[in-house]
Amino acid sequence: xxxxxxxxxxxxxRSLAHCxxxxxxxxxxxxxxxxxxxxxxxxxxxxxxxxxxxxxLELTPVQPGVQSLxxxxxxxxxxxxxxxxxxxxxxxxxxxxSLTYRIEPFTDYGSSLNISLPAAVIRPHxxxxxxxRYTTTxxxxxxxxDAELTCGQTRPLVFTQGHSVCNRSFFxxxxxxxVKSTYSATVRVPEGVTVLMSASRSAYxxxxxxxxxxxxxxxxxxxxxxxxxxxxxxxxxxxxxxxAEPCILTCAVSKLGGNVERWLNVAEGLxxxxxxxxxxxxxxxxxxxxxxxxNPCLTFIISxxxxxxxxxxxxxxxxxxxxxxxxxxxxxxxxxxxxSEGLATYAQRRITTEAYGDAFTCxxxxxxxxALHRQMxxxxxxxxxxxxxxxxxxxxxxxxxxxxxxxEKGFCFVxxxxxxxxxxxxxxxxxxxxxxxxxxxxxxxxxxxxxxLGFFPELKESCVAQRExxxxxxxxxxxxxxLCEPDLSAGKALTGPVQHLCDLWGMDAPxxxxxxTFDLSSWSTFQTVLFLDRLLDRSPLPQGIKNPFLPLxxxxxxxxxxxxxxxxxxxxxxxxxxxxxRTLQQILxxxxxxxxxxxxxxxxxxxxxxxxxxxPTANGTIALxxxxxxx
Length: 631
Ligand SMILES: [Zn+2]
What we know:
This protein is an alpha+beta fold. Helices cover 34% and strands 22% of the residues. It has 19 helices and 22 strands. The structure holds zinc ion (ZN). Zn(2+) binds at residues 318, 322, 341. Belongs to the peptidase M1 family.
C-alpha cells in the first residue's frame, strides 16, 4: 500500500479512490445520486407471510446526464408501480409522473430495478422523490417464524437480517455499504404484535395499530432491521432496554443486569461518545440464523446465548463495539469487511481488558486464534479467502466469503498497528480521533492507514526512510496466517491448566487417576471450550472419549450413531427453522434434492456476528464444527 501520497478530490470532497469505488456486489448506479433519506410504509401480513407497502426515496442527481435510477432488488420482491415527484419550478405545483421500469437479472442473490427518469424534470443537483409500491414475501432478508419456532410457541414472529446483501429483498435500495442515509418507517401490524426497528426514535399509535420509526443518523442499507412479534421490554439502564418474548424476558434481564451501561461507559472512555442514543437488545428465538447482529440502536441476539454468561458477555460487548467500528465508521465495500470486524474485535478486547482484565481477554483471544489456525489448516496457506483485502469475482455472494480471517487476522493487523505506535493508550486516542474524523461515513483501508500515519508522523518518517519499513501491503494482500500475533502470555494462568489436561489426554496411555484429580468445576466456559477444541484437534480420538463430546449431526452420521441422529432430527425438526432443517436433511440423507438456493441456509448466510457460521468454500467440504467456531 502506498503511504501518504496526496489524493485529488472529486464530488462532495470525497477522495478519488472513493469516486472510483466499485462494488461488484451492487447492480445500482449509486455514484450518480445523493440519497438523502428514504421512508418505508409497510403492512405486515403474518397469515400469508407477506410485506406490502411502498418506499419513498429522496434523491439528488450528482452527475450530469443521468437517465435512469438503478436499484438493487431481488426476485422475491414484486414491484407494482414507480412514481416520481419533482418540485415545481418557482412556486408551481409538484409534478407527479408515473415511471417505466424493468427488472434485470444480476446474480443469484439479487436482481436490478432499472427505472427510466424523464429528462425534462431530472436536473443535476435538484432533488426529486421516487415512490415504489411493492410486495415482498420470503426473500433472504425476511425470516417468518411460525408460532412453533418461537420461544413462547403462541404467536408468530418475523425478523429481518440485512447483512451483507440481503436487504435488497426487503426494499429496493443502493445495497452497498458505501451509501448511507437516514430513514423512517411506518409499520402496520395486527393487534398484539410489537414492532421494533434499528431506529433512534419510535412511537406507537394503539388506536391505529401503527408503529412509527425514525433513524436520525445515516446508516447503510444492510443496517436497516425490523422484528415483529410478541415482544415485551424491561429497562436495564438509562439508555438500554431488553426486549424479548415474555417467557424469557426475566432470564434475559437477570443475566445482563446492570452490565450493559457499564460496558457502554468503558467503551466511551476508550473510543469517545456513543453516538446512537439508545442501546437496546432484542432476544430472538433459537432459530435466529446467527448469534448476533449489530443493528444500530437495537442489537439482535439469539436467546440460546443465555445458556452461557461468558458468550453473552463477549457477544454483547462485540456488538457494542460495532457502535463505533462498523456502524459509525463502515467498510465502503464488502471486500474490506475487516475494517468493521477486525476493528470491532480489537475494540471488544480493549473493553474486556478494561472491564475483566488481561487474563480473561487473552484466554478468549487464544481460543479464537486457535479456531483461526484450524481454519488455516483446512484451507491451506495460499487460499485467497485468507486475504484481508479480498477480491470478489462478480456473482460471488459477499456473505459466502465472510470468515475468521475477517475477524481474527483483522484483529491481529490492528494489534500490529497498536504495537507500531508503541503505546496502547496512544493507540486508543488514535482510534478516538479516527471515529471523530470518519463518523457516519464509509472508508477504505487507505483512509485508515493514511490517517494512522498522519496521527503518528514519526512512523511515516521512518517508513519513508526505509521504504519497505512497514508491511501494510503484505498484511492486506498476502495469503496465509497473520504476519504476527499479539503477546497472549497474560492468559497463562487460565490457558495453562487447559493445555496440561490436553497433554494428559493426549498421552499414548492416558492415566485416569491423574486426570480425575483435575477440578473442572472452577473452569470458565472458555476454558472448557478451549479444552474440547484442542482435544478434537488431536483426532482421531479413542472411541471411548469421542462419542460423548461430539453431539453433532455430521459426526454422528459418520459412524454407527446415524440412526440416533435421524431419530433426533425427526423428533425436533418441527422446531427448526426451515433453512436449518434443509441443511440437516442434506447432512443426514446426503441428498441434493433439497433446494438451498432460494433462501440462505445456515452455512451460506453469515452474519456480522462474533460467532459466525461461515463456509468459505461453500462446497460443504468443511465440517460444521470448523465453520461454526466463533470469532
Ligand atoms: Zn462483528
